[in-house]
Amino acid sequence: MTQTWTEKTPAEAPVKVTAEDSSWTEAELRQVRADLTAEVDRLSEEIAVIEAEISGVVEDPIGADGRDEADVGGKLAEREHEVNLLEGARAGLAQNMAALERLDAGTYGTCESCGEPIGKLRLQAFQRATLCVSCKRAQEKR
Predict the structure, then answer these.
(1) Burial of 85 (0-12, 13-18, 19+ CB in 10 A)
(2) What does the pLDDT look like over 104-116, one tens digit per residue?
(3) Quick one: which of 19, 23, 24, 130 could link to 15 by a disulfide (CB 3.0–4.6 Å)?
(4) Does 46 lie in the same domain as 77?
């Protein structure tokens, strides 16, 4: 299941910034969109590869060929690892697609908790951020 992102025109609303930040330029926002889109494409390909690997492992039943318990345990660990990789890739894909949707909606850069600007430097470091530093700290304390 490969998903792709179709680039849309930039949202009319400017991205919120803190008092310390400079406004986002069109070039910066184009770069954010390009980075997020590239990550969506990369994760979509990664998901397709992992799903193919998992389907190959699932078709090979555990213990059906008389292997000992250690072999069966190793195969189970391999399956669990592949499933964990798949879950992580799917979560990353969803986060990147949500960031692109926020760009299109004009809500990119707005904290989902308090509604204040997330901060340009934070978004440049972690483009998928949905919380400002204060709200993220409060979330992590819970």
Answers:
(1) middle
(2) 999 999 999 999 9
(3) 24
(4) yes
Residue 3 lies in a domain: no
Q: What's the pTM value of the predicted model, to 2 decimals? A: 0.77
Structure-token pair, residue 59: 């078709």
| Sign of CA pseudo-dihedral 43, 49, 51, 57 | negative
Q: What number of other Cβ atoms are within 10 A of residue 105's Cβ?
A: 11
pLDDT digits (tens, 9 = 90+) for 86-98: 999 999 999 999 9
Domain count, the chain: 2
**Containing domain of residue 137, as a range?**
109-142
Q: Rounded distance, CA 84 to CA 101, Å?
A: 26
Structure tokens given for 74: 């190793």
The two tokens of residue 115 are: 């509604």
Tokens 């213990």 belong to 63
Which tops the pLDDT comparison, 57 or 54?
54
Number of neighbouring beta carbons within 10 Å of residue 71: 13
Q: Name the H helices within the chain.
A: 26-59, 69-105, 120-125, 133-141
